[in-house]
Design a protein that fits this description.
Strand content: under 5%
Helix content: over 70%
Number of domains: 1
Number of strands: 0
Order of helices and strands: HHHHHHHHHHHHHHHH
Shape: globular
Structural class: mainly alpha
Largest sheet: none
Distance between the termini: 24 Å
Number of helices: 16
């Protein structure tokens, strides 16, 4: 990896660490205070919001990153029009969640009210995602990191404060989780200054052009968020609040190894939008898988004694789903980088197709397995979906751009050398700045 790419990945990595780390630290607190059933009810209350954050975007955050990165058109026009579409999506999404709340709550009036409360955060959270997309296109990874840090600190601090004062309930936890989903937007007050400094091309990106690319990305994002979050939204009706509580804990743990993958995906989408480099993309896939696998192994070993110790004996049954989900994270990693390559190279529809394959497998399996195996069945379904989605993306990028399948898999001596060189380069930069 080039020095600049390595540094961008590192800064993005720092930002991507905070959200799952905050979720992991707060998970035992929520589990101990709320119990298995209460934790499941909280998961049911916030799952629609998390789901809608991917569905209601119209693909605008990614489209804004793409056009800003390519310096195509007036940047002010891209920002203004992207935020307008996000406002529309937020309004429609909020109304849809409130209308569907009774069905998603499986007949519970209390959970339905919590779902409606969480839905209020959708619009500001979507606008935040648009600002983040612009910052990513400008390679302002420091701003993105600061935003995620602020949100994570406020979420962790809020949950801890409620627990210490004895006021942590499903209602107060829902308010904190929803409110902190957009609190980090304050860092983007400096974004207009950066936009004004960057001159775009003469071509004006029209609403139709922005929406055309965004809609193709949106299909993939929509299916991707379904693949990642829909199981939590339907597990309560399919199984029980206890199963959902166990599964939410397993998901929060299994997402920790994704921090490096997420950082690599963010940087590669922006970089590949600027210029296409086959070897860089393949190297990013392999190195991301190496690091992700190493993190996953460590987390799996720690989880064996750690889950009952941190979460309580009632959550011991979350271990098997956690291990299954960790396996899915590693096996699906190469394809996730390939799918980003498809989007950045102007083929977001094919990324959507790959995700659709994975989601279909996930949905069919969870419908069959969740009523029988509960959280374990949901984990098996998620693992299968991630594997099939990733492999399909690799098949597409092989067919269209001439990659070999082996380019995204395995371990080469050069990969380790690249990682070591990147670490040495970054360490050298820090020493020079110190």
């Amino acid at each position: 990896m080039a020095d600049r790419t390595s540094e961008r990945v590192l800064v993005s990595l720092v930002g991507n660490v905070f959200p799952p780390l905050s979720a992991f630290v707060t998970a035992p607190i929520l589990a101990q205070v709320l119990g298995v059933e209460g934790r499941g009810e909280l998961g049911a209350a916030t799952a629609p919001l998390l789901l809608a954050l991917g569905i209601a975007t119209f693909g605008m955050p990614e489209a804004m990153t793409h056009y800003v990165g390519r310096s195509t058109g007036s940047l002010r026009a891209v920002v203004t029009r992207g935020l307008a579409w996000l406002t529309l999506g937020g309004a429609l999404g909020t109304a849809a969640i409130i209308l569907l709340a009774p069905a998603l709550a499986a007949g519970s009036d209390a959970i339905a009210r919590l779902i409606a409360i969480a839905a209020v955060a959708l619009l500001p959270s979507l606008l935040l995602s648009g600002l983040r997309g612009v910052a990513a296109g400008l390679h302002l990874w420091g701003l993105v990191t600061a935003e995620r840090l602020i949100s994570s600190v406020f979420r962790l601090g809020g949950i801890v404060a409620l627990a210490v004062t004895g006021t942590l309930t499903e209602l107060t936890a829902t308010i904190v989780i929803a409110g902190t989903s957009f609190v980090g937007a304050v860092v983007y007050v400096v974004l207009p200054r950066h936009v004004s400094r960057r001159r775009g091309g003469r071509e004006l990106v029209a609403h139709a052009g922005l929406l055309s690319f965004g809609s193709r990305v949106w299909v993939g994002s929509f299916i991707g968020i379904l693949l990642a979050r829909f199981d939590q939204a339907i597990l309560l009706p399919l199984s029980s609040a206890v199963a959902l509580g166990l599964y939410v804990v397993a998901v929060s743990i299994s997402e920790l190894p994704l921090v490096f993958n997420s950082a690599m995906r963010d940087v590669m989408f922006s970089s590949e939008s600027e210029s296409q480099q086959d070897e860089r993309l393949a190297l990013a896939s392999r190195t991301s898988t190496i690091v992700t696998a190493a993190i996953a192994v460590v987390i799996a070993l720690v989880s064996i004694p750690g889950i009952p110790f941190l979460f309580g004996a009632d959550f011991a049954d979350a271990l098997v789903p956690t291990l299954i989900l960790l396996g899915g994270v590693v096996l699906g990693n190469p394809g996730s980088i390939a799918s980003i390559g498809l989007s950045a190279r102007g083929r977001p529809g094919l990324r959507a197709f790959a995700l659709a394959v994975g989601f279909t497998a996930n949905l069919l399996l969870i419908i069959v397995l969740a009523p029988i195996l509960g959280a374990t069945g949901a984990a098996i379904a998620a693992c299968a979906g991630a594997m099939l989605s990733g492999f399909t993306a690799i098949l597409w990028i092989r067919k269209l751009f001439g990659f070999r399948l082996s380019a995204f898999y395995g371990l080469r001596r050069g990969d380790i050398q690249a990682i070591v060189a990147a670490v040495a380069s970054i360490a050298g930069r820090f020493r020079r700045r110190a």
